[in-house]
Specification:
Helices cover 60% and strands 0% of the residues. The protein is an all-alpha fold and 105 residues long. The protein has one domain: Alpha Horseshoe (Serine Threonine Protein Phosphatase 5, Tetratricopeptide repeat). Helix 2 packs antiparallel against helix 3.
């Protein structure tokens, strides 16, 4: 195991996805945040957290997560959030979560 726990980040990310799919958004938010704490460069975790926060009506927090995802991977800005940002600023729903991903390693 990595000394700082980064190899656990995919576990928390995938747990967040599972909980999100089950409609347990508060728990999903918790696990996406843990994945980000362990691996701050996880674009998918930032993006998915932003999507869940947006659906919960937390537009400012959602925008922050979308912007962080874009900062980390600017070449994918269109795929991440650019069409969603205006909707998020208005407090409306924006996008579904990114597709499932396999843990790296």
């Amino acid at each position: 195991m990595d000394r700082n726990g980064t190899d656990l980040a995919p576990f928390y990310y995938n747990l967040g996805r599972m909980l999100e799919k089950k409609g347990q958004t508060a728990e999903a938010i918790r696990y996406y945040r843990e994945a980000i704490r362990l691996n701050p460069d996880d674009v998918d975790a930032h993006n998915n957290l932003g999507a869940v926060l947006d659906r919960k009506g937390h537009a400012d927090e959602a925008i922050h997560e979308f912007q962080e995802a874009i900062r980390l991977k600017p070449e994918q800005a269109d795929a991440i959030t650019t069409s969603e940002l205006p909707s998020a600023e208005q407090g409306g729903p924006t996008r579904p979560s990114a597709s499932s991903r396999k843990p790296s390693g």
